[in-house]
């Protein structure tokens, strides 16, 4: 799986091209700041549009990689579920305490062939989903904070211009 993901990265993400694009974007952002200081907002707007186009182009490689790798991840988890012998009932089974500590056997017994694999598959798949949800929520919070800050900056600039 790791080898496949590395191959996909090499195929869809051209690192040199991405570095060049980032450098070009930094130069354009510096030009935009200078143009804004000189009150040339139309030219700054055009440069901003070019930056957005470059950003979209950079995202295309990542999107292609995700589109190709997502089915592979789904197949990986389906095969893992089949290998682990996960059934609908076993997803809701209660782990048990044993004399050598807490070991999550959904069967409630010492079953290495099914219990161990099923338990760890369900455990890691659950954490995979939980961490994904946490990252999405964190991303939404950061985005909303950035929007709030930009709104306040816009209001402050307008008040400075007016006042």
TrEMBL record:
Coiled-coil region(s): 8-38
GO annotation, cellular component aspect: membrane
Compartments it resides in: Membrane
Entry keyword annotation includes Transport: no
InterPro entries named in the record: EMC3/TMCO1
Membrane-spanning residues: 120-137
Keywords: Coiled coil, Membrane, Transmembrane, Transmembrane helix
Topological category with respect to the lipid bilayer: Multi-pass membrane protein
Protein name from the UniProt record: DUF106 domain-containing protein
Organism: Candidatus Iainarchaeum sp
């Amino acid at each position: 799986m790791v080898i496949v993901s590395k191959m996909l990265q090499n195929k869809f993400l051209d690192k040199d091209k991405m570095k060049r694009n980032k450098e070009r974007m930094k130069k354009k952002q510096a030009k935009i700041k200078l143009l804004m200081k000189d009150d040339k907002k139309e030219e700054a707007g055009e440069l901003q549009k070019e930056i957005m186009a470059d950003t979209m182009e950079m995202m295309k490689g990542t999107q292609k990689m995700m589109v190709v790798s997502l089915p592979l991840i789904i197949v990986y988890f389906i095969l893992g579920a089949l290998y682990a012998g996960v059934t609908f009932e076993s997803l809701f089974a209660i782990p048990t305490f044993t004399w050598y500590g807490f070991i999550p056997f959904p069967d409630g017994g010492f079953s290495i062939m099914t219990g161990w694999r099923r338990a760890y598959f369900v455990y890691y798949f659950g954490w995979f989903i939980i961490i994904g949800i946490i990252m999405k929520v964190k991303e939404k919070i950061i985005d909303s904070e950035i929007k709030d800050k930009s709104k306040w900056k816009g209001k402050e600039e307008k008040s400075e211009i007016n006042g």
